[in-house]
Amino acid sequence: xHGCGSPRARVLGLLDAWLTDEQRQLPPAELSRFRVVVGSTxxxxxxxxxxxxxxxxxxxxxxxxxxxxVLVNVVCFGGVLGLVxxxxxxxxxxxxxxxxLSSVFILTTLVVGExxxxxxxxxxxxxxxTVYLLGPLPGLVFTAFFxxxxxxxxxxxxxxxxxxxPVLVSEWAGVDSLLAGVSLLGGWVLNWLHRTTREESHxxxxxxxxxxxxxxxxxxxxxxxxxDVVLALDLEGRVVATNxxxxxLFRAVTGRDFQxxxxxxxxxxxxxxxxFRENTTRALEGQRLKVETTLPLEGRTRTLEITFNPVWxxxxxxxxxxxxRDISERKEAEARLEEMHRSLLDVSxxxxxxxxxxxxxxxxxxxxxxxxxxxxxxxxxxxxxxxVGLERAVELLRENGSSLGTFLTEDPRGxxxxxxLEALSAQLQQEREGVLEEMRRLGESVDHIxxxxxxxxxxxxxxxxxxxxxxxxxxxxxxxxxxxxxDRLGIQLRREYCAQIPPVLVxxxxxxxxxxxxxxxxxxxxxxxxxQDKQLTLxxxxxxxxxxxxxxxxxxxxxxxxxxxxxxxxxTTKKDGHGFGLHISALAAEEMGGGLMCExxxxxxxxxxxxxxxxxx
Length: 617
Description:
This protein is of the alpha+beta class. The protein has helices spanning 7-18, 21-24, 28-51, 60-84, 91-111, 125-133, 136-160, 166-169, 173-225, 244-254, 264-267, 270-284, 328-383, 387-399, 404-409, 412-461, 471-481, 483-489, 508-529, 581-591, and strands at 229-233, 239-242, 289-297, 300-313, 316-326, 466-469, 492-497, 504-507, 535-543, 546-553, 595-599, 607-614. A hairpin with a 5-residue loop joins strand 1 and strand 2. Helix 19 (508-529) packs antiparallel against helix 20. 25% of the residues are buried.
């Protein structure tokens, strides 16, 4: 691109000064023709004015015709320049220019007696001007007249006017005239080829420019349609392009309108200049960067996500594009979501604890029932004990102590006493064994209560802490919490554990909560099914670096359209359900680095919930 002080710019400025404002707004092709018309006409006018003093050097016989031709040229060229400013199209001034130039030149060569004037080098201007200004066909007509003049008209004028024939002056004059005509036609051919190739190149260029403008328009429209700030920088960090959002942000930050070409470091707020300098330097080295920063704006702190992208041209970086997005609302939403997530986890923990506590209370309640039964049996047996008969026998022996031998041998009561004592001893032994059996059952029930309470305390104590957990033992704990309900419903329990189950590093409470929830759901599904062959299967297997725990039942099953929604908060298929358990279980599984999935072949076909956990945390 040429500067304003370059010779080309100065020359074009002089040419455009002669044109009107309307003409200067014409398409480039029309403007170029106007410029050529003005430049060629002005140059020929100046040359003719400078040539007037040289007319005196001609022979007196030729002075008048030459002077008249020069004056005619001056008038014609001046008229063309005057006509240029009155027309919107350069076609008529160009035709008049070519006509005046050709007519005066041919007439001059005819009246001037000098041989060789018809083949003067100036004649080569005609093919160039006419082809460029008027087109190939009009240019051929003008060039043909000049060629005929050089070959025939000039020599014919010498013969008519009785001047020496050029052939008599030089034996090569005829050959020169012929070569001049051929050269003129060759000049037209060359100019026609140049114009044709130029037009094709120009058409291709126009098509490329049109496509480029359309693409640029689409790109600008696309950039302006986004709510993100978009900036394009050159290698010096100057802003070369931007969108309306960036301009509005610049106006809001600085209070003035955006001007292209300014440095990004001058435009940016002081709080962001260091960030921009560091990241633009790294982007110019070819790195793509994404950073987050905060900016006080409009009375509040905004969080911005800024992306720096290098612009490549081949293997070198030629600029940078910067995209900035206000993510304040997203950050606030994420904070609210995180808070809600923590609340959900707390609620889920309480819900899980309530579920576990319910199981604990069921088991403790049943154990207490056994304790009560055993205690009642012991009390009844103690009340109905034959110890009273032993007391009566002892009293008889005490009353007859002085004559015990006679009493045992002669007294009817004494003779029955040994047999009675033997029967009483057997009865008391039986009562003792019964009481011991009930006391053993009472002890087992108390031990069961202690075990359930201890298990609950153990899981509650380690909540939130990662530890190595034996999965099979934790599954047994989950089943123990539902043992009474499973037995009462007649649910057949199957355990399918692989031979070697490695311990996993997890939160014991979360895993137990998931297992209790899955077993509880399976129990409800089996209860609602009304089947006689209720079956609950727990399967543990290893799949690569993951451990799979499957809880399968043959209960009511799940409709296919409901499977994708099972883990959505609030979705439930139970009449009294809250749609919370599976959602929280899925979240807990993800927090432990695993996942929770469900498979069901349809209603009445049962369901399988599979929990995957990483063996290595």
